Amino acid sequence: MPIRKNIGLFVSYKLEILKKLKILLIEDEFLVRNQTQKILGVFFNHVIVAANGIEALELLEQSPDLILCDIKMPQMDGLTFAKRLRAINNDTPIILLTSYSDQETLLKAVNLGIDGYLLKPIELDQLLEALERVVKKLKINEDIVLLGKNLTY
User: Fold this and answer.
1) Is 50 exceeded by the pLDDT of residue 142?
2) CA 85: distance to chain centroid?
């Protein structure tokens, strides 16, 4: 996975912030889920994992700060999950993962207020750039103390 030079700055500057956040990973493919969980574990202290949208809905009680979600999954796909999440909580950032570059799916994602859209296989620099955008959306920086979900000082 090639990493651009500016990503190194992001990693050193934002790593401490990411460590304080909980991320929910939703991925149906076992090997992809495990590999992605390990990579996310480098950046996040708390990685919550679900194999599909139904499992993920049950795990929302753990209050993830952001969500990384595959689109094509059995039982409940990523767009259906995102729609249900938006009905409950419109603030949690969602980054969608897909193996397909489908314009119709992308438009549906935009209408759901998705915060990022990454093509598989995921490149580390693209993932980190998407996480940086989410951190900015959460308005977390060195001057703000994160006290809990949606609670800052």
Assistant:
1) no
2) 13
Type of residue found at 143: D
Closest CA to 56 of 92, 107, 20, 18: 92
pTM of the model: 0.81
DSSP-assigned states of every residue in 65-110: SEEEEESS-SSS-HHHHHHHHHHH-S-S-EEEEES---HHHHHHHH
Cα distance between residue 93 and residue 82, in whole Å: 10
Q: What span, in angstroms and rounded, lies between the C-alpha atoms of 78 and 30? A: 16
Tokens linked to 30? 């076992």
In sequence order, which residues have a C-beta less than 8 Å from that of residue 88 and are 6 or more positions away? 60
Structure confidence at residue 104 as a pLDDT band (50, 70, 90): confident
